[in-house]
Protein backbone atom coordinates (compact mmCIF):
# COMPACT_ATOMS: atom_id res chain seq x y z
CA UNK A 1 0.00 0.00 0.00
CA UNK A 2 1.38 3.46 -0.88
CA UNK A 3 2.52 5.77 1.91
CA UNK A 4 -0.20 7.98 3.41
CA UNK A 5 -0.46 11.53 2.05
CA UNK A 6 -0.20 13.97 4.96
CA UNK A 7 1.38 17.07 3.40
CA UNK A 8 -0.16 19.52 0.99
CA UNK A 9 1.33 22.42 -0.90
CA UNK A 10 -0.82 25.47 -1.62
CA UNK A 11 0.77 27.65 -4.31
CA UNK A 12 -0.47 31.14 -3.45
CA UNK A 13 2.27 33.36 -4.83
CA UNK A 14 0.36 34.62 -7.90
CA UNK A 15 -0.28 38.34 -8.31
CA UNK A 16 -3.96 37.89 -9.08
CA UNK A 17 -3.83 40.57 -11.78
CA UNK A 18 -7.19 39.48 -13.21
CA UNK A 19 -8.82 40.84 -10.08
CA UNK A 20 -7.14 44.24 -9.96
CA UNK A 21 -7.73 46.66 -8.38
CA UNK A 22 -9.01 44.43 -5.52
CA UNK A 23 -5.79 42.39 -5.48
CA UNK A 24 -3.64 45.51 -5.14
CA UNK A 25 -3.96 45.11 -1.38
CA UNK A 26 -5.92 41.87 -0.85
CA UNK A 27 -4.38 38.51 -1.79
CA UNK A 28 -6.60 36.77 -4.32
CA UNK A 29 -6.91 33.78 -1.99
CA UNK A 30 -8.55 35.96 0.66
CA UNK A 31 -11.36 36.99 -1.69
CA UNK A 32 -14.59 35.54 -0.39
CA UNK A 33 -17.24 33.22 -1.70
CA UNK A 34 -20.24 34.28 0.42
CA UNK A 35 -18.31 34.76 3.69
CA UNK A 36 -15.33 32.43 3.47
CA UNK A 37 -12.08 33.17 1.69
CA UNK A 38 -11.07 30.92 -1.21
CA UNK A 39 -8.21 29.58 0.87
CA UNK A 40 -10.59 28.33 3.57
CA UNK A 41 -12.33 26.07 1.05
CA UNK A 42 -8.95 24.65 0.04
CA UNK A 43 -7.91 24.04 3.65
CA UNK A 44 -11.21 22.36 4.53
CA UNK A 45 -10.83 20.05 1.55
CA UNK A 46 -7.27 19.18 2.55
CA UNK A 47 -8.30 18.45 6.14
CA UNK A 48 -11.11 16.17 4.95
CA UNK A 49 -8.52 14.23 2.94
CA UNK A 50 -6.35 13.65 6.03
CA UNK A 51 -3.73 16.34 5.41
CA UNK A 52 -1.86 17.31 8.58
CA UNK A 53 0.82 19.66 7.27
CA UNK A 54 -0.03 22.69 5.20
CA UNK A 55 2.70 24.34 3.15
CA UNK A 56 2.00 27.71 1.57
CA UNK A 57 4.21 29.01 -1.20
CA UNK A 58 3.72 32.75 -0.94
CA UNK A 59 5.24 35.96 -2.28
CA UNK A 60 5.52 39.61 -1.32
CA UNK A 61 2.21 41.16 -0.25
CA UNK A 62 0.58 37.95 1.03
CA UNK A 63 0.82 38.83 4.73
CA UNK A 64 -2.97 38.85 5.08
CA UNK A 65 -2.92 35.12 4.44
CA UNK A 66 -0.60 34.48 7.37
CA UNK A 67 -2.76 36.65 9.62
CA UNK A 68 -5.84 34.79 8.52
CA UNK A 69 -4.59 31.52 10.01
CA UNK A 70 -3.44 33.14 13.23
CA UNK A 71 -5.36 33.36 16.46
CA UNK A 72 -7.02 36.75 16.95
CA UNK A 73 -7.00 37.14 20.77
CA UNK A 74 -8.68 40.54 20.89
CA UNK A 75 -11.50 39.57 18.55
CA UNK A 76 -11.98 36.24 20.32
CA UNK A 77 -12.12 37.95 23.71
CA UNK A 78 -14.75 40.41 22.48
CA UNK A 79 -16.89 37.61 21.07
CA UNK A 80 -16.54 35.59 24.27
CA UNK A 81 -17.58 38.61 26.36
CA UNK A 82 -20.67 39.02 24.21
CA UNK A 83 -21.47 35.31 24.37
CA UNK A 84 -21.20 34.89 20.60
CA UNK A 85 -20.28 31.21 20.70
CA UNK A 86 -21.47 30.52 17.14
CA UNK A 87 -19.03 33.06 15.76
CA UNK A 88 -16.25 31.68 17.94
CA UNK A 89 -16.95 28.26 16.45
CA UNK A 90 -16.73 29.67 12.93
CA UNK A 91 -13.33 31.17 13.79
CA UNK A 92 -12.05 27.79 14.98
CA UNK A 93 -11.86 26.57 11.36
CA UNK A 94 -9.32 29.30 10.65
CA UNK A 95 -6.88 28.16 13.32
CA UNK A 96 -4.07 25.76 12.72
CA UNK A 97 -2.17 23.65 15.22
CA UNK A 98 1.22 25.13 16.05
CA UNK A 99 3.77 23.78 13.61
CA UNK A 100 1.16 22.45 11.20
CA UNK A 101 1.52 25.34 8.83
CA UNK A 102 4.59 26.63 7.02
CA UNK A 103 5.21 29.51 4.66
CA UNK A 104 7.88 29.49 1.99
CA UNK A 105 8.54 32.41 -0.32
CA UNK A 106 8.77 32.05 -4.06
CA UNK A 107 11.16 34.90 -4.78
CA UNK A 108 10.59 34.98 -8.53
CA UNK A 109 7.42 34.23 -10.48
CA UNK A 110 8.89 31.40 -12.55
CA UNK A 111 5.78 29.23 -12.83
CA UNK A 112 3.73 26.64 -10.96
CA UNK A 113 6.43 23.96 -11.19
CA UNK A 114 8.94 26.32 -9.63
CA UNK A 115 6.49 27.28 -6.86
CA UNK A 116 6.03 23.60 -5.93
CA UNK A 117 9.79 23.02 -6.09
CA UNK A 118 10.30 25.85 -3.57
CA UNK A 119 8.63 23.59 -0.96
CA UNK A 120 10.86 20.56 -1.69
CA UNK A 121 12.75 20.56 1.63
CA UNK A 122 9.52 20.63 3.62
CA UNK A 123 8.05 17.78 1.62
CA UNK A 124 11.08 15.49 1.83
CA UNK A 125 10.84 11.98 0.49
CA UNK A 126 7.14 11.24 0.63
CA UNK A 127 4.08 11.61 -1.58
CA UNK A 128 2.36 14.98 -1.27
CA UNK A 129 -0.75 16.78 -2.45
CA UNK A 130 -0.96 20.08 -4.31
CA UNK A 131 -4.12 22.18 -4.19
CA UNK A 132 -4.65 25.21 -6.42
CA UNK A 133 -7.09 27.36 -4.44
CA UNK A 134 -8.41 29.03 -7.65
CA UNK A 135 -10.08 25.77 -8.55
CA UNK A 136 -12.98 25.48 -6.14
CA UNK A 137 -14.78 22.16 -6.26
CA UNK A 138 -18.22 21.64 -4.74
CA UNK A 139 -18.68 17.95 -4.06
CA UNK A 140 -20.48 15.69 -1.65
CA UNK A 141 -17.20 13.92 -0.90
CA UNK A 142 -14.42 16.52 -1.19
CA UNK A 143 -12.34 16.07 -4.35
CA UNK A 144 -8.97 15.46 -2.69
CA UNK A 145 -10.54 12.85 -0.42
CA UNK A 146 -11.89 11.03 -3.49
CA UNK A 147 -8.38 11.09 -4.93
CA UNK A 148 -6.65 9.96 -1.73
CA UNK A 149 -8.97 6.94 -1.65
CA UNK A 150 -8.24 6.11 -5.29
CA UNK A 151 -4.51 6.68 -4.71
CA UNK A 152 -4.48 4.14 -1.87
CA UNK A 153 -5.18 1.56 -4.59
CA UNK A 154 -2.94 2.89 -7.36
CA UNK A 155 0.10 4.67 -5.88
CA UNK A 156 2.15 6.54 -8.48
CA UNK A 157 1.07 10.11 -9.21
CA UNK A 158 -2.45 11.34 -9.82
CA UNK A 159 -4.05 14.51 -11.18
CA UNK A 160 -7.69 15.56 -11.01
CA UNK A 161 -9.23 15.47 -14.47
CA UNK A 162 -12.33 16.89 -16.13
CA UNK A 163 -13.66 16.98 -19.68
CA UNK A 164 -13.66 20.54 -21.04
CA UNK A 165 -15.06 21.89 -24.33
CA UNK A 166 -12.36 21.26 -27.00
CA UNK A 167 -11.96 24.99 -27.73
CA UNK A 168 -11.04 25.55 -24.07
CA UNK A 169 -8.38 22.80 -23.90
CA UNK A 170 -5.54 25.22 -24.66
CA UNK A 171 -6.08 26.90 -21.26
CA UNK A 172 -5.18 23.71 -19.36
CA UNK A 173 -2.79 20.87 -18.92
CA UNK A 174 -4.28 18.13 -21.14
CA UNK A 175 -4.01 14.36 -20.81
CA UNK A 176 -3.34 11.76 -23.43
CA UNK A 177 -4.94 8.58 -22.14
CA UNK A 178 -3.55 5.10 -22.65
CA UNK A 179 -6.23 3.23 -20.72
CA UNK A 180 -9.66 4.47 -19.71
CA UNK A 181 -11.05 2.73 -16.63
CA UNK A 182 -13.97 5.09 -15.98
CA UNK A 183 -13.20 7.34 -13.02
CA UNK A 184 -9.57 6.47 -13.37
CA UNK A 185 -7.47 6.84 -16.52
CA UNK A 186 -3.89 5.84 -17.10
CA UNK A 187 -1.96 8.73 -18.61
CA UNK A 188 0.27 8.23 -21.64
CA UNK A 189 1.45 11.81 -21.87
CA UNK A 190 0.40 15.26 -20.78
CA UNK A 191 0.91 18.65 -22.32
CA UNK A 192 0.61 22.11 -20.78
CA UNK A 193 -1.54 24.62 -22.67
CA UNK A 194 -1.46 22.92 -26.09
CA UNK A 195 -1.76 25.22 -29.10
CA UNK A 196 -5.38 25.40 -30.34
CA UNK A 197 -6.27 22.33 -32.37
CA UNK A 198 -3.33 20.23 -31.12
CA UNK A 199 -4.67 18.95 -27.77
CA UNK A 200 -4.39 15.14 -27.42
CA UNK A 201 -7.89 15.01 -25.86
CA UNK A 202 -10.33 17.25 -24.04
CA UNK A 203 -9.52 15.73 -20.65
CA UNK A 204 -8.01 18.62 -18.69
CA UNK A 205 -5.96 18.73 -15.50
CA UNK A 206 -7.77 20.48 -12.64
CA UNK A 207 -5.87 21.89 -9.66
CA UNK A 208 -5.63 18.83 -7.39
CA UNK A 209 -2.60 16.59 -7.48
CA UNK A 210 -1.12 13.71 -5.50
CA UNK A 211 2.51 13.45 -6.50
CA UNK A 212 5.45 11.19 -6.00
CA UNK A 213 8.46 12.98 -4.42
CA UNK A 214 10.33 12.11 -7.61
CA UNK A 215 8.39 14.91 -9.33
CA UNK A 216 10.42 17.31 -7.16
CA UNK A 217 13.61 15.70 -8.45
CA UNK A 218 12.36 16.22 -12.00
CA UNK A 219 11.77 19.87 -11.16
CA UNK A 220 15.43 20.25 -10.14
CA UNK A 221 16.21 20.34 -13.85
CA UNK A 222 14.26 23.63 -14.14
CA UNK A 223 13.25 23.13 -17.74
CA UNK A 224 11.06 25.97 -18.93
CA UNK A 225 7.95 25.04 -20.85
CA UNK A 226 4.70 26.67 -22.00
CA UNK A 227 4.75 30.46 -21.65
CA UNK A 228 8.45 30.32 -20.71
CA UNK A 229 7.48 29.05 -17.23
CA UNK A 230 8.62 26.02 -15.27
CA UNK A 231 5.55 23.84 -15.54
CA UNK A 232 4.35 21.24 -13.04
CA UNK A 233 2.69 19.38 -15.92
CA UNK A 234 6.09 18.83 -17.59
CA UNK A 235 7.63 17.42 -14.40
CA UNK A 236 4.72 14.98 -14.05
CA UNK A 237 5.00 14.03 -17.73
CA UNK A 238 8.65 13.15 -17.08
CA UNK A 239 7.46 10.54 -14.62
CA UNK A 240 5.75 8.71 -17.46
CA UNK A 241 8.91 8.93 -19.54
CA UNK A 242 10.69 7.24 -16.61
CA UNK A 243 8.09 4.43 -16.61
CA UNK A 244 6.35 5.61 -13.45
CA UNK A 245 2.55 5.34 -13.35
CA UNK A 246 0.54 8.56 -13.67
CA UNK A 247 -3.25 8.56 -13.38
CA UNK A 248 -6.01 11.03 -14.10
CA UNK A 249 -8.99 10.92 -11.78
CA UNK A 250 -12.40 12.03 -13.04
CA UNK A 251 -13.74 13.40 -9.77
CA UNK A 252 -17.42 13.85 -9.05
CA UNK A 253 -18.38 17.40 -8.21
CA UNK A 254 -18.70 20.80 -9.78
CA UNK A 255 -15.56 22.79 -10.44
CA UNK A 256 -15.52 26.57 -10.52
CA UNK A 257 -12.66 28.47 -12.10
CA UNK A 258 -12.32 31.17 -9.46
CA UNK A 259 -9.27 32.52 -11.26
CA UNK A 260 -11.72 34.10 -13.72
CA UNK A 261 -14.31 36.73 -12.88
CA UNK A 262 -17.13 34.82 -14.47
CA UNK A 263 -16.21 31.60 -12.64
CA UNK A 264 -15.91 33.48 -9.38
CA UNK A 265 -19.38 35.00 -9.80
CA UNK A 266 -20.86 31.62 -10.69
CA UNK A 267 -19.30 30.11 -7.58
CA UNK A 268 -20.66 32.95 -5.48
CA UNK A 269 -24.20 32.33 -6.74
CA UNK A 270 -23.89 28.57 -6.39
CA UNK A 271 -22.45 28.64 -2.86
CA UNK A 272 -25.02 31.29 -1.93
CA UNK A 273 -27.87 29.07 -3.13
CA UNK A 274 -26.39 26.16 -1.17
CA UNK A 275 -26.78 28.12 2.07
CA UNK A 276 -30.14 27.60 3.68
CA UNK A 277 -30.31 31.08 5.19
CA UNK A 278 -29.70 32.75 1.81
CA UNK A 279 -31.42 30.39 -0.61
CA UNK A 280 -34.95 31.86 -0.67
CA UNK A 281 -33.91 35.49 -1.05
CA UNK A 282 -31.22 34.80 -3.58
CA UNK A 283 -33.27 32.49 -5.78
CA UNK A 284 -36.21 34.94 -5.76
CA UNK A 285 -33.81 37.67 -6.86
CA UNK A 286 -32.33 35.52 -9.63
CA UNK A 287 -35.79 34.59 -10.88
CA UNK A 288 -36.74 38.28 -10.96
CA UNK A 289 -33.75 39.40 -12.97
CA UNK A 290 -34.06 36.50 -15.41
CA UNK A 291 -37.75 37.38 -15.95
CA UNK A 292 -36.88 41.02 -16.42
CA UNK A 293 -34.26 40.14 -19.00
CA UNK A 294 -36.71 37.91 -20.84
CA UNK A 295 -39.38 40.62 -20.84
CA UNK A 296 -36.88 43.09 -22.27
CA UNK A 297 -35.96 40.79 -25.21
C1 LIG B 1 -2.66 25.45 -13.93
C2 LIG B 1 -1.90 24.24 -14.48
C3 LIG B 1 -2.74 23.55 -15.57
C4 LIG B 1 -4.09 23.19 -15.03
C5 LIG B 1 -4.79 24.43 -14.44
C6 LIG B 1 -6.08 24.03 -13.73
O1 LIG B 1 -2.74 26.40 -14.96
O2 LIG B 1 -0.66 24.67 -15.00
O3 LIG B 1 -2.08 22.39 -16.01
O4 LIG B 1 -4.89 22.64 -16.07
O5 LIG B 1 -3.95 25.08 -13.47
O6 LIG B 1 -6.75 25.13 -13.23
P1 LIG B 1 -3.15 27.95 -14.69
O7 LIG B 1 -4.63 27.97 -14.59
O8 LIG B 1 -2.49 28.35 -13.41
O9 LIG B 1 -2.65 28.70 -15.87
UniProtKB/TrEMBL annotation:
Pfam families reported for this sequence: NTP_transferase
GO biological process per UniProt: UDP-alpha-D-glucose metabolic process
Domain of life: Bacteria
UniProt-recorded Gene Ontology molecular function terms: UTP:glucose-1-phosphate uridylyltransferase activity
EC number(s) per entry: 2.7.7.9
InterPro entries attached to this UniProt entry: GalU_uridylyltTrfase_bac/arc, NTP_transferase_dom, Nucleotide-diphossugar_trans
Cross-referenced CDD domains: UGPase_prokaryotic
SUPFAM superfamilies given in the database record: Nucleotide-diphospho-sugar transferases
Domain Nucleotidyl transferase: 12-268
Catalytic activity: alpha-D-glucose 1-phosphate + UTP + H(+) = UDP-alpha-D-glucose + diphosphate
Keywords: Nucleotidyltransferase, Transferase
Family as reported in the entry's similarity comment: Belongs to the UDPGP type 2 family.
Name of the protein in question: UTP--glucose-1-phosphate uridylyltransferase
Protein source organism: Pseudosulfitobacter pseudonitzschiae
Lineage: Bacteria, Pseudomonadati, Pseudomonadota, Alphaproteobacteria, Rhodobacterales
Gene field: galU
Amino acid sequence: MPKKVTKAIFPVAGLGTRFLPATKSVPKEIMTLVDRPLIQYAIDEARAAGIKEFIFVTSRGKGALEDYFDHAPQLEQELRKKGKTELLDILKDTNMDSGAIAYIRQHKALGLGHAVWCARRLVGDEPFAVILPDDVIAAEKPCLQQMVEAYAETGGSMVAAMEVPPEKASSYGVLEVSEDMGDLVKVKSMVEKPAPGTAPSNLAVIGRYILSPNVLTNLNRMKSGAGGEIQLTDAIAEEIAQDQAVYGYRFSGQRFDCGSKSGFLQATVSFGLAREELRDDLSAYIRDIVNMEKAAE
